[in-house]
Amino acid sequence: MPAFSGVSKARLLTCHHDLIVVMNHAIVYGPDFTIMCGHRTVSEQQNLFAQGRTKPGPKVTNVDGINDIGKHNHSPSQAVDIAPYPIDWNNTGRFMILGGYIMGVAQGLGVNLCWGGDWDGDYDNKDERFSDLPHFELRSA
Fold first, then answer.
1. Structural domain that includes position 29
2. Domain for residue 26, yes or no?
3. Pick from 8, 22, 10, 29: which is nearest to 138 by CA?
4. Residue 123: is its pLDDT beyond 90?
5. What is the pLDDT of residue 129?
6. CATH at residue 27
7. Which of 110, 102, 48 has the alpha carbon at shortest distance from 73?
8. Is 1 contained in some domain?
9. pLDDT of amino acid 8
């Protein structure tokens, strides 16, 4: 049976209670996955925002953490990034399967989530969205 590592547990503890409940339920009954990120400091967010702009690599966020506060920047975090374990960033099929599973778990638990692999019209920044397969966030009320 899959279980979170100490690092994943620590990252998950930076998240909103509802995300903790969904992820803890999902790891017990489903495929193995790791918690990549919960809360991000402003510095961490700015570093990610710079990627693909002033630093090498692809763009991974449109949120700079100062002018635009993202769900990861709340404390507790309103978002969590996860990845199927072991991680293979090129195997998007595994991310899609995990994403559907997590959304089903959340629905079963009555937690209203958005998934970055399936943004819909409720996403605040829909003009700037891109596929973000590891990302799950609490849907705004």
1. 6-138
2. yes
3. 22
4. no
5. 62
6. 3.30.1380.10
7. 48
8. no
9. 98
- Reference 140, options 71, 62, 42, 40; nearest CA is 71
Give the count of domains, the chain. 1
CA distance 71 to 29: 26
CA distances from 19 to 5, 43, 47, 67, 111 (A): 17, 23, 24, 25, 8
Q: Extract the tokens encoding 1.
A: 């049976």
| Within-domain flag for 105 | yes
Cα angle value 130/49/22 (rounded, 5°): 60
Nearest to residue 17, comparing CAs of 129, 134, 119, 109? 109
Strands, DSSP E only, in 1-141? Answer: 33-37, 79-84, 113-115, 135-138
CB burial of residue 110 (10 Å; 0-12, 13-18, 19+): exposed
pLDDT, average across residues 64-79: 95
User: Can you give the pLDDT at residue 23?
Assistant: 98
Which amino acid, one-letter code, is at 45?
Answer: Q
Residue 62 lies in a domain: yes
* Averaged pLDDT score across all residues of the chain: 92
Q: What is the DSSP letter of 75?
A: S
